């Protein structure tokens, strides 16, 4: 059973997909969010769920360093609630994503990826880290 990982931002959504056994996460794509048609984001994700036979969606929950949920965390929770109405048969999980974007950035820098290229893949890499964290936790 496959899982989809989402790093939800205001301008983009990073997407990662697990293998069929649920062991590894791979970057799938970065969705540019549509301000004019916000439902388009949900329809794009719904198509991925159907195409890849996804049963679980893991949405990154950005918490403050003290564990509280701030405005961006509240936006992620609202996004997850709206997403659930579009994919009611999927199990939705919120996953603490503290420092995933920072870790993804450091990984890309250490791989000597240019700033321009990092900007294009950072959200997808963060989604991979969110999903892999969930998969690793679930496996233990």
From TrEMBL:
This protein's record includes keyword Nucleotide-binding: no
InterPro entries recorded: RNaseH-like_sf (IPR012337), YqgF (IPR005227), YqgF/RNaseH-like_dom (IPR006641), YqgF/RNaseH-like_dom_sf (IPR037027)
Recorded superkingdom: Bacteria
Boundaries of every YqgF/RNase H-like domain copy: 1-104
Annotated GO CC locations: cytosol
Record's keyword terms, sorted: Cytoplasm, Hydrolase, Nuclease, Ribosome biogenesis
Pfam families xref list: RuvX (PF03652)
Enzyme Commission number: 3.1.-.-
Single GO term (MF): nuclease activity
Single biological process term from Gene Ontology: rRNA 5'-end processing
Subcellular location: Cytoplasm
Similarity comment: family membership: Belongs to the YqgF HJR family.
Function: Could be a nuclease involved in processing of the 5'-end of pre-16S rRNA.
NCBIfam families: RNAse_H_YqgF
Descriptive protein name: Putative pre-16S rRNA nuclease
């Amino acid at each position: 059973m496959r899982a989809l990982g989402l790093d939800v931002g205001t301008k983009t959504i990073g997407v990662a997909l697990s293998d069929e056994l649920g062991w590894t996460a791979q970057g799938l794509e970065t969705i540019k969010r549509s301000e004019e048609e916000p439902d388009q984001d949900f329809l794009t994700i719904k198509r991925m769920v159907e195409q890849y036979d996804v049963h679980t969606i893991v949405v990154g929950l950005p918490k403050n360093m003290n564990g509280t949920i701030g405005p961006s965390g509240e936006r992620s929770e609202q996004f997850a609630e709206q997403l659930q109405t579009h994919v009611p048969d999927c199990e939705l999980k919120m996953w603490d994503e503290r420092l995933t974007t920072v870790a993804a950035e450091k990984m890309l820098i250490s791989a000597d990826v240019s700033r321009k290229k990092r900007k294009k893949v950072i959200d997808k890499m963060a989604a991979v880290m969110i999903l892999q964290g969930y998969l690793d936790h679930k496996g233990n």
